[in-house]
Amino acid sequence: MKQGITVQERLKDLRTERHLKLEELAAATKISKSALGSYENDELKEISHKNLVELAKFYGVSTDYLLCLTENRNHPGMELTELHLSDSMVELLKSGRINNRLLCEIATHEDFVTLMTDTEIYVDGVATAHFQNFNSLLEVLRGQVLSQYQPVEEDAALKALEAMQVQEEDYFCQVTHRTWDTILHAIREAHKDDTDSAPDGSNGMKLIRDAKKALAVPGSYLDVFTALMCTQLQIRYEKLSEQERTVLKNVMKKTPAYKDSPLSRMKRR
């Protein structure tokens, strides 16, 4: 999960949140569909001030939010004192040493309040006396059983009384661990399809992105194969003329990489 998102990603997220197509957004904002599409492309086209203001107004956010200068959509300009953060916490959040976006997702998960409540109970020792009283009662019962019935050490009832004793640290470790698991699994599930969750420099993730882009190319699998090879050579396939594409495809058909590929024997639906 990346620490920040790009302007293109933010614009696309805002549009898809509202289930809008580019045509619908264009009609609502009076900005051309081609311009809106270019704003969401990998190679961001410069957004005019007029269009930036129009998009911010339409989505009900600040221009700083659109430009990824802030993560605050609904609370722009909030005073830091209102958040009751220590200086150390502010410095940590500003340092870039942690993923602030991930921290926000953890803290806003529905079970995070439960986690904090259990943690506070443990840290403040609120339940310590209750654990001690409960364990003391079990010890008294165990003593009575020993004095009245004089059972052997392996007696089932005696073992049960021993097993019923609960250690405070063990209990809260189990409880908080279970809540942590729920939170982390939910966040991981929410991001399972995010290829960008891996480090930006990951060759594997780059290959996946290139492949997805190539698969979107219309035509045969030879077109897809050629487009993918072009990405590896840093050639923009979509900018090539039809004649240039034909020449490249004729060359690609002769390469062992294509001949040995399952793509060469498949028909695209």
Description:
The protein has helices spanning about 5-15, 20-30, 35-40, 50-60, 65, 85-95, 100-105, 110-125, 130-150, 155-165, 170-190, 205-215, 220-230, 240-250, 255-260. The chain is an all-alpha fold and about 270 residues long. The protein has three domains: about 5-75, 434 Repressor (Amino-terminal Domain) (Orthogonal Bundle), CATH 1.10.260.40; about 115-190, no CATH class; about 205-265, no CATH class. Helix 8 packs antiparallel against helix 11 and helix 13 (about 220-230) crosses helix 14. The longest helix is centred in the middle third of the chain and has 23 residues, at about 170-190. The protein is elongated. The model has no long low-confidence stretch (mean pLDDT about 85).
